[in-house]
Design a protein that fits this description.
Helix content: 10-25%
Order of helices and strands: HEEEEEEEEEEEEEEEEEHEEHEEHE
Number of helices: 4
Structural class: alpha+beta
Largest sheet: 18 strands, mixed
Low-confidence stretches: 1-20
CATH class of the largest domain: Mainly Beta
Mean pLDDT: 90
CATH topology of the largest domain: Jelly Rolls
Number of domains: 2
Number of strands: 22
Distance between the termini: 14 Å
Radius of gyration: 20 Å
Amino acid sequence: MKTIAISLALASLLAPTAGVCAPPAVVEAVQFPAWLERGGNAVPLTPGTVLQAQDRLRTGGNARVQLKLPEGSAVKLGENAQFVFEKAEDKGIFRATLSVLSGAFRFTTDVLRKGQKRDIAIKVQNVTAGIRGTDLWGKSTGERDLVCLLEGKISVGAEGHPTVTLDQRLDFYQKPRGGEPAVAKVDEEQIAKWSQETEIATNGPAARAGGKWTVRVATYRARDGALFLNRVLRANGYPSEVVPFEKLHAVQVTGLAGEDEARALMANLRGVKGVEIPILVVPQ
C-alpha cells in the first residue's frame, strides 16, 4: 500500500548510519494511535515497518501493537506503552534485548519453532527476564514492575536482588517501586483480564499488512489545507497521506484490516481537531 511504502521510505531516511546490525523484526499490526521514534524523529507506526536497533515504539490510549521477531516469536504491546528494540543478532543462537519502559506486553514463542535456540532478555524497568522459549505477560506501571509466566520457564530478577526461576504456570514476579521483589500466584480470571490489555480488539481501529479498507478523513480544494490536517493527524499517531481525488486533495488513512476496524478509526478521528465527517471507502 502507498501509505506503508511512504512510511518505510521515511523510516529508512531516519535510520542511523552506524550501529548494531540486527536481523529484522517486523510490525504486523497496529491499533492506532502509535508512533515509531528513530534518530530523534517520530512518525506514525504502520504495519510492515522493519525495526532497527534502538528503535522506540510508543502507543496511545486504547492502542495496541503486534510485532514478529525473526526467530518466530511474537511481541504484543498494550496502550500507553513505551518499548525499545535495543539489539538483536543471530549467530546460530538468536540473541536479543528488548526493553519495556512502560505499559503492558506479551511475549509468545511460535509453537512450531520452540526448538529454535534463543537467548532473549526482556527488561521491564527494574526487572529483567531471561527467555529461551516460553509465553509470558508483563507490565510496568508507576507502582510496580511485574512478569507473569503463562507457559515454559524463565529466570527473572531485579537489580541488587538474586535471580529466581519461574517454572510453574501463573507464577508472577513483581517489584514494587521502592519495595522488595516477591513471587506470588495469580488466577485464570486475572490472566484473562491482563491478556485483553495486549490483544488487538476485534472491532478496534487496527491496520494490518495487506489491509484494504480506507478512511477518507477530509477533502480540500486547496492543497495547503490538506497538508495542514495531514500534519495534525500524523502528529496524533495516524499514518495519513494526501492524495488527488476528483480535482480535490483528499486526506486519508489506508490499510485498515476490515470494515469494523475502519469504522472504529472514523470514530477515533472525530476527536481530532479539524476532522468533521470522515468517509468509509469500500475496497474495489
